[in-house]
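Chain A, query sequence.
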Amino acid sequence: QVQLVESGGGLVMAGGSLRLSCVGTGRTFDSAAMGWFRQAPGKEREFVAAINWNAGITNVVNFVKGRFTISRDNAKNTVYLEMNSLNTEDTAVYYCAGDSSPYRDPSSKYYDYTYWGQGTQVTVSS
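Chain A, predicted structure.
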């Protein structure tokens, strides 16, 4: 069993930056692909970025490429989402997700993830 806890969300002006963190508990963290998804009010949950178990492969959705970076530190059981040049369309609840199948490539599909955090709110003001 893996539990995930996100932090780092908040209110930021357009053009600003935030770094989200997701700390995982459980022995399987360092073999699991990890992902970030987000959900804006009235919209479906959407994929943002994912990273494989050893950070050798990342998968980032086109609309955040060049602005968002995903990384991980297995020694700290933590995955990060560095977000730069934020705009109002990035306002959403951001969720961390963990894959229960070890050593799998990072997926952009929400149904490939078994474990989910509670979410952290990111609000970008104009």
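The chain has a mean pLDDT of 96. The longest strand covers residues 18-25.
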